[in-house]
Specification:
This protein has about 290 residues and is an alpha/beta fold. It is about 40% helix and about 15% strand. The chain has two domains: about 30-115, Rossmann fold (3-Layer(aba) Sandwich), CATH 3.40.50.10860; about 140-270, NAD(P)-binding Rossmann-like Domain (Rossmann fold, 3-Layer(aba) Sandwich). The protein is built from ten helices and eleven strands. Strand 5 (about 160-165), helix 7 and strand 6 form a beta-alpha-beta unit.
Length: about 290
């Protein structure tokens, strides 16, 4: 069993990005600039955005954090997005989800210029991804591809079962792993909460991507020997022994699954750090105009 250390890999990629930024700066070029819009005081969102800002500083990016109270109107938030779309100094930006209930997340996503959509959520980027065209890949799936490639995990001809069908992870992951590419050529089964006898599907899998949002959902009796486990879940469960009163666990029961796996991501320290790093990679592409020219 090998641990797929996302934290260590993310640091390696950040160092690579930092070298490129230093070269851009030395040549008198424009330093990549990532902006983030944070609405409200959700602790998880604040932590995630803080990590993004810290990572920007680490690689030498410029960054802007726009904080707004959760009472902001939808119209006012859309106006902020319009300003960021037009700002020539901002290469890419994200609007941190979730948003307050009175704001339509779909309307917000559609308002973002696809050329600056470094989260990869806009339908234009999603459609380009589905057709194998240049695009900004959704950050978490992009991070998973990096983990598979850089750890030399063979995907061609393998049976991959994706558990969860969200537009952020599950559905794009199923598309990316089935495409004709270096990390791809899988036979993919996309499963979800309505799948009958889901365990029968996962037991046949060579690779499992678990993104269903249920703590410890994938157990040892649901996987075969030698399986590759990518655990996307980040769930808080109560734990009185911890200072914060909770601990983070994935969608996979690590204790029972790890002994049967060939590779497995831990939680925390697996996919999470790679998501932030992928956002940096997309921003670097945006600054170089590698996707849309």
């Amino acid at each position: 069993m090998n641990i797929l250390d996302g934290k260590a890999l993310s640091e390696t990629i950040k160092q690579e990005i930092a070298v490129q930024v230093a070269e851009i700066k030395a040549a008198g070029g424009k330093i990549p600039h990532l902006a983030a819009v944070l609405v409200g005081n959700d602790p998880a969102s604040q932590s995630y955005v803080k990590s993004k800002v810290r990572s920007c500083e680490q690689v030498g990016f410029n960054s802007t954090l726009i904080r707004q109270d959760d009472s902001i109107t939808e119209e006012a938030l859309l106006a902020i997005i319009d300003d960021l779309n037009e700002d020539p100094y901002v290469d890419g930006f994200i609007v941190q989800l979730p948003l307050p209930k009175h704001i339509d997340e779909e309307k917000v996503t559609l308002r973002i210029d696809p050329k600056k959509d470094v989260d990869g959520f806009h339908p234009i980027n999603f459609g380009r991804m589905a057709q194998g065209l240049a695009c900004y890949l959704p950050a978490t799936p992009y991070g998973i591809l990096q983990m598979l490639e850089r750890n030399g995990i063979e995907t061609s001809g393998k049976h991959c079962v994706v558990v969860g069908r969200s537009n952020i992870v599950g559905t794009p992951m199923s598309i990316l792993l089935s495409r004709k590419a270096k990390v791809g050529n899988c036979t993919v089964t996309l499963t979800h909460s309505r799948t009958r006898d889901l365990a029968a599907e996962t037991q046949r899998a060579d690779i499992i991507v678990a993104a269903i949002g249920i703590p410890g959902f994938i157990s040892g009796d649901m996987v075969k020997e030698g399986v590759v486990i990518i655990d996307v879940g980040i769930n808080r469960v109560e734990d009185a022994s911890r200072k914060r009163g909770y601990r983070l666990v994935g969608d996979v029961d690590f204790e029972s699954v790890a002994p049967k796996s060939s590779f497995i991501t831990p939680v925390p320290g697996g996919v999470g750090p790679m998501t932030v790093t992928s956002l940096l990679l997309n921003t670097l592409k945006a600054s170089k105009k590698e996707v849309y020219g």
